[in-house]
Every structure is written in C-alpha cells, then in structure tokens.
Specification:
The chain is an alpha/beta fold. It has helices at about 1-15, 85-95, 115-125, 145-155, 165-180, 185-190, 195-205; strands spanning about 20-30, 55-65, 70-80, 100-105, 130. Strands 3-2-1-4-5 form a five-stranded mixed sheet.
C-alpha cells in the first residue's frame, strides 16, 4: 500500500514536471560511531575522545525529478533540536536551489505538522506541496542511505574535538558524496521507487 502511494507521487511528478524532495532528520554526536577497521592483528586502533555529548541536529534531503538521472543532496546542520522554525527555514532554503513546483515528502514529526509550518505552506502553495510518509516506514525514505554513508563510513571512528570540527567534517563528506555519480539515484533505487531496468537506463544517461 505504502509503495503504491509513493509510486503515485512519482507518476504525478513525472507528468507535471515536479521535483520530489525526500526529507529526514537525524543527529550526530562528538562521540564516534564505532566500526571495525583493517588494522593489523595485535595493533588495535586507539580512539581518543572527550566523552562530550554535544550533538548536531541534521536535516537531509534528496531532490529528484522522476525520469532524470541526476539527483541533488542537501544537508543542514544546527545545534539543538529541529523545531518548527528550523523546518520552515529548511523549506525556504530549498527554494533558493530548486526551480519549478516541488513536492516535499517527510515523516510525521510534530514540527512538520505545526501551525507555523502549515501557515508557511499556505503562503508558498504556488510552488510547494507537503506530503507525509506512511508511519513506521523509514525504508521508503532514500535519505536513510545518506545517513548510512555518513554514519557508517564518512564519520565512523571519527572523534571530533569540537562541534565546529564535526560540522565541517560532515559537510565535507556530503560534498564528496555529491560528486559521486549516481549516489543519490542509488539511494532511491534501494527504496524500490526505481526498478533495475530503469536504474540501468538512467545510469547510462548520466
């Protein structure tokens, strides 16, 4: 049922030239995500950290126009929680980068359903539509792939000395992912929105 609903958004966007923007929030800490390394036996790497629990809240987005091979990755970082004001700021920043009508797909986070966001939507209805993902279905959101790359690879075993250092590290990692051809499209394929045959054709068109 959920997959069919998302497929309908894809078909509608394809017919009308809309850009689909998948959005999700997450968080990053100065305490590193621990992963196995290729260190020699008996030479276990030592990680030095400050046991600091300071965190950055992150809003990630993947913009894609169905039928097109290219995607755009966005990452917004800020200290503290993502509230209604931060959600409105994030939507406003999207307009600076994307032309034409946009459909944002995100979850039911209270900040997404707030009066402030709804009021903003009414003023931006000429270009912006908000749709909600089905509950308890993170596997349908391709931004999960971005989080996996940033947490399990780019920042694995990385202990930042300061929040600013962590901020710069994550932004640099995201820039490298943007330069990786087909990365965002691969995230979308993993959700089932793009089949194997269509995926191969789109990759050839890049």
């Amino acid at each position: 049922m959920a997959t069919r609903r998302l497929a309908a958004h894809k078909k509608g966007a394809l017919a009308t030239g809309q850009t689909l923007v998948f959005v999700e929030e997450s968080g990053f800490s100065q305490r590193p995500t621990l992963r196995r390394t290729w260190a020699l036996r008996g030479q276990t790497p030592t990680l030095r950290e400050h046991f600091n629990w300071k965190r950055l809240s992150a809003a990630g987005a993947i913009a894609w126009r169905p039928g097109q091979p290219r995607t755009r990755l966005f990452l917004s970082l800020r200290p503290g929680a993502i509230d209604s004001s931060a959600a409105v700021d994030f939507l406003g920043n999207l307009r600076r980068h994307l032309r034409g009508p946009v459909v944002v797909l995100w979850d039911g986070l209270p900040a997404h359903r707030s009066r402030l966001v709804q009021a903003y939507l009414r003023t931006q209805a000429h270009w912006l539509t908000l749709e909600r993902f089905p509950a308890y279905a993170p596997e349908l959101n391709p931004v999960e792939g971005l989080w996996a790359d940033l947490k399990s690879h780019a920042s694995a075993n990385y202990a930042a000395d300061t929040i600013d250092e962590l901020d710069q590290h994550l932004k640099g990692a995201t820039r490298r992912l943007r330069r990786s051809d087909g990365r965002g499209l691969g995230y979308i394929k993993h959700t089932g929105l793009v089949g194997e045959q269509e995926y191969r054709q789109l990759c050839e068109d890049q």
